[in-house]
Amino acid sequence: QVQLVESGGGLVQAGGSLKLSCAASGSIFSINFMGWYRQHAGKQRELVASISSGGSTNYADSVKGRFTISRDNAKNTAYLQMNSLKPEDTAVYYCNVNLHTVMGVPYNYWGQGTQVTVSS
Length: 120
Fold this sequence. Notes:
There is one protein chain. It contains no helices and 11 strands. By secondary structure, it is an all-beta fold. The strands form 2 sheets. Strands 2, 4, 5, 6, 9, 10 and 11 form a 7-stranded mixed beta sheet that branches. It has a 4-stranded antiparallel beta sheet with strand order 1-3-8-7, with no helix packed on it. The N and C termini lie far apart (41 Å). The model has no long low-confidence stretch (mean pLDDT 96).
């Protein structure tokens, strides 16, 4: 059993910053990719940023230069630092973790989602 706990969402004015956290716990052997997705109202979920176990990162074009993904492997935690926020960044943000359990089984887990609202 694996649990993902997200935190850090909220309401911020345009130009402001927020930092999201996603902590994984439970029967984890290793974590491969950790990522953040977002879902705008009425639209499909989209990748925002991801980071590999080795630290390689990937960003959506819309957030490059403004968002930074990082991870603390010792804490099984991923972070998303969001700067220069825009109203169009308003969405529900979901953490995604690709891991192997202690039994060697690969799984893909989703967090419960956290609302980010950017006011103009």
